[in-house]
Amino acid sequence: MSAQDFTIAAGLAARRRLGATVAMVALVVLLMLISLGTGPVRLSPLTVIEALFGGGSDVSQVIVREIRLPRTILAFAIGAILGLSGAALQGLLRNPLASPSLFGAPQSAAFGAVLVIALGLADVRSYALPVAAIIAAFGSVFVLLAIAGRNAGLLILILAGLAISSLAGAATALVMNLASNPFLVLEIAFWLLGSLEDRSFQHVAMALPFIVAGAAILLSQASAFRALTLGEEAAQSLGVDVGRLRLFVISGVALGVGGAVAVTGTIGFIGLVAPHLMRPLIGHDPARLLLPSALAGAALLLAADIAVRIIPSTSDIKVGVLTSIIGVPFFLYLIRRERRALGGGVA
Amino acid sequence: MTLLSAQHLGVTLAGRTVLSDVSLSLSPGHLVALVGPNGAGKTTLLRALAGLVASVGTVHIGGDVLSSLALRERAKRFGYLPQGHVVHWPLPARDIVALGRFPHGVTDPARMTAKDVDAVLRAMQAADVVEFADRRVTELSGGERSRVALARVLAVEAPVILADEPIASLDPRHQIDVMKSLRTAADGGVLVIVVTHDLGLAARFADRVMVLSAGRLVSQGAPAAALSEQVMHDVFRISAYRAEYQNEAVIVPWADV
User: Fold this and answer.
1) Hey, which of A174, B188, B203, B234 would disulfide with B223, CB 3.0 to 4.6 Å?
2) pLDDT band per the 50, 70, 90 thresholds, residue A345
């Protein structure tokens, strides 16, 4: 093999990955257009595009730009940060079953948010809600990694995650238990199910800065995840500050997931599923998976949010319920597929 | 000329003294075998030399104090091969080897300078892994994977290679292949330190043997001298068959004592 062959082979692989990424971008754009067109008044993608750029009737402009655009932006951004967080955690822990929801991050963020709601501090114009959610998410991931320790096996991580999400769930239940007002309990209960309905640009303004910051932090660590393929010790010997990397990942996930949960409630399993959908197309390189996983997460949440508006039902299905109903069987399938490795440890 | 030296190096892990008062001085172009019973502190010594574990004492590398060097700078000076040839994701072998260029600023194996591509190719040729450049490492046999891991370390092109049990669980042919590659690196001017339990291969390939026992360096020198009958008896609690073959020391562990 000459240097030229070497470069050519690498170039071919790179082109294939680029193709897959471009296709994902196209899919996400298409889903955004469909999302903007879906609702009580159905609009064709062309009408949507027209309305977006200030053309068409006033009614369609109001529907697209003021009512549906915030919802679509949130579905995109939240799906993307959940997919990205999943890929980042899988990279950090070198484990394909890692994801924010299995580690109790969204559940903890929800507790932080519920506490703020119950105390009557939640105001769409204040940042109390996202900040509380982010702090709780940070605390949960930090505690999880502290308990699990370095080079933790999956069993320890899952058990610790189970404990943390159970604790967060119990704490949330306690808040609801102690709430004086039954309407408040109902509000919290529905909020917990996770939904993108009736979200405004104020919600976008509340969540987006945190999501963007979280995404930037996670993406900046891409190459460190690749070095971690060789294990923490080898990565450190290559110049990766593993301790700092962990802190960055925890912070990025907490900012993103906390910001997301604050405006939509808990939406689970997107972080687990998205990287798996991309591995057959992109390969297993944890650095290269980050961006495509974000796109896959965005596509999944956009599709789920379109589905809840199309599926005929007497009362609205919440999108968080739908992602869990689809995500859990997928998780079981993954466990089955990884059974051999899980039973005997990865060679 | 000294390339790597340590003065009064000590490591305490979870309250237990794992390494104490180790001083050594090693020159480039040597293959040094680090031997000792299980739990003697061999891995810890390698990690302390590379600055991967908190230690007391001083390490000098190429005239600089190790602790004064930034992480990236240290990474350029040590090629560190941990035990077990761990690879967590099924990446192609070429991408694994390219990680050796990480300290030199290669963060994406698809975007390497001609110099980096050359270094990666040289390393793959030296470890004889060019033929499976495009295969996923997880699909390779244990022996093949150990050679890919070795190529990754060679690709760093560091003045010092620290290899932790690179030949454990390999068949005899692969053991010899790996030791020969390391020997070639040493002959090219690199200081290679190999942790191994194979005293025979240590005697066969190393210029120098260091014997570690209970965290202390108890013997060092040319193989036959460092692995004296006394050391075999006291440290390893065995007797060995000793001979000479083609002007080299042959040491075969024989019986317990």
Assistant:
1) B203
2) very low
Q: Tell me the CB-side half-sphere exposure of residue A325, using CA atoms within 13 A.
A: 11
The answer, for B165 touching chain A at a CB cutoff of 8 Å, is no
Tell me the CA distances in angstroms from A18 to A219, A284, A288, B245, one per residue in order: 17, 15, 10, 58
Enter the tokens of residue A56: 């068409």
Please name each of the domains of chain A with its CATH number: 66-344 (1.10.3470.10)
What is the CATH T-level fold of the domain B4-256, as seen in this structure? Rossmann fold (3.40.50)
Helices (H), A221-318: 222-227, 232-237, 242-264, 270-282, 290-310
A140-144, A241-245, A340-344, B196-200: least confidently modelled range? A340-344
Tell me which amino acid residue A104 is. Answer: G
Residue with tokens 């082979």: A9
Residue found under tokens 């046999």 = B141
- Chain A residues in contact with B82 by the CB 8 A cut-off are 230-231, 233-234, 237
pLDDT at B58 over 60: yes
Quick one: pLDDT band at residue A347, thresholds 50, 70, 90? very low
CA A78, CA A84: separation in Å to the nearest integer?
10
| CA separation for the pair A227, A239 (Å, rounded) | 9
Specify the higher pLDDT residue, A13 or A51: A51
Can you name the residues that pair with B83 across neighbouring β-strands? none
Q: CB neighbours of A106 closer than 8 A, spacing ≥ 6?
A: A100, A137, A257, A260, A261, A266, A267, A268
Q: What whole-number distance in Å separates Cα of residue B174 and Cα of residue A309? A: 61
DSSP B15-60: TEEEEEEEEEEE-TT-EEEEE-STTSSHHHHHHHHHT-S--EEEEE
| Residue in B92, B102, B118 closest to A238 by CB | B102
Encoded amino acid at A266, one letter: T
> Rounded distance, CA B252 to CA B198, Å?
9
Q: Taking residues A177-203, what's their average pLDDT?
A: 85
Is residue A174 helix, strand or coil?
A: helix
pTM to 2 decimal places: 0.90
Nearest residue in B to A222, CA atom: B107
**Main-chain phi, psi angles of A226, to 5 degrees:** -65, -45
Spell A247-275 as b/e; 16+ CB within 10 A means b. ebbbbbbbbbbbbbbbbbbbbbbbbbbbb
Q: Which of A132, A161, A162 is nearest to A145 (CA)?
A: A161
Amino acid sitting at position A193: L
Question: Tokens 């910051």 — which residue?
Answer: A213
CB neighbours of residue B159 within 10 Å: 17
With contacts defined as CB-CB under 8 Å, which chain A residues touch B89?
A: 94, 229, 284-286
In chain A, residues with a C-beta closer than 8 Å to the C-beta of B72 are: 239
CA distance A102 to A163: 10
CB B232 within 8 A of CB B200: no
Query: Angle, nearest 10°, between helix axes A3-37 and A69-93?
Result: 140
Residue A152 pLDDT grade (very low, low, confident, very high; cuts 50, 70, 90): low
Question: Burial, A214: exposed, middle or buried (Cβ in 10 Å; 0-12, 13-18, 19+)?
Answer: buried
